[in-house]
Amino acid sequence: MDAILSVSQLTGGYSVGRPVLHNIDFQVKPGEMVGLIGLNGAGKSTTIKHILGLLQAHKGSIRVNGKQLSEDPQQYRSALAYVPESPLMYDELTVREHLELTAMAYGLSKEAYESRRTKLVREFQMEEKLNGFSQHLSKGMRQKMMIMNAFMVEPALYIIDEPFLGLDPLGIRSLLDLMVSMKEEGAAILMSSHILATIEKYCDSYVVLHKGRMAATGTLEQITEQAGCPGQPLEDAFYALVKDGPTA
Ligand SMILES: Nc1ncnc2c1ncn2[C@@H]1O[C@H](COP(=O)(O)OP(=O)(O)OP(=O)(O)O)[C@@H](O)[C@H]1O
């Protein structure tokens, strides 16, 4: 099956003379959830910024549904939704207005918007906050608002950056349930997280970044083999792969 996201031999970063990422190469297919893992500074957020088109590749390419951003920006952008690590929002808008804005930006019909909003607001127990200003939300509620915005779109590709921080256990469960159901409907999900015990239960495969390079990639079985600890948990394989310390 053709990949929804295809990152090919990506070298990139913040300035051309000093690449942060080197030859990153992986795919996310329909119905697949891929975990992007690595120590602080390994290059996870930088990889995500390249996928979102916020940074230019120095070498290599990124394709969404077979097209690079420059070939068809509209199609590229509308195929993906992003849940940021820290909430990006307009303080003076309500939760409802944020959701409306997203629905407009992605051209959702009124019916789709209303039925998805009702489901999401219920799932994340945000009924009472729907008409409240986003600046009055708690940290976890802000995160829930970002998640609701992304899931409202029901895109082909979800890019989710460390989503669990700040969420209560019910919120984490709701998010995981939603990811599973979108995946079952054929969505591709790329999620970065440090919570290895959780993602081990949900991801189909992993990309392990270390110092801006790929230390390993594949299913849990393949990763543990590459790390020299077959049959062990993801955390043990991860430790074996990155034990020479964080980014130099
Ligand atoms: N705006 C920036 N300008 C220059 N270098 C940056 C910038 N942001 C990050 N870096 C560098 O890029 C490298 C990779 O950082 P990145 O943010 O991608 O790591 P990460 O894997 O997401 O880490 P964390 O787990 O801490 O979020 C680090 O060496 C970091 O110092």
From TrEMBL:
GO molecular function, one term: ATP binding
Domain ABC transporter, chain residue ranges per copy: 5-236
PROSITE patterns reported for this sequence: ABC_TRANSPORTER_2
UniProt xrefs under SUPFAM superfamilies: P-loop containing nucleoside triphosphate hydrolases
CDD domains: ABC_DR_subfamily_A
Pfam families (alphabetical): ABC_tran
Gene3D superfamilies the UniProt entry points to: P-loop containing nucleotide triphosphate hydrolases
Keywords in alphabetical order: ATP-binding, Nucleotide-binding, Transport
InterPro entries: AAA+_ATPase, ABC_transporter-like_ATP-bd, ABC_Transporter_VariousFunc, P-loop_NTPase
Annotated protein name in UniProt: ABC transporter ATP-binding protein
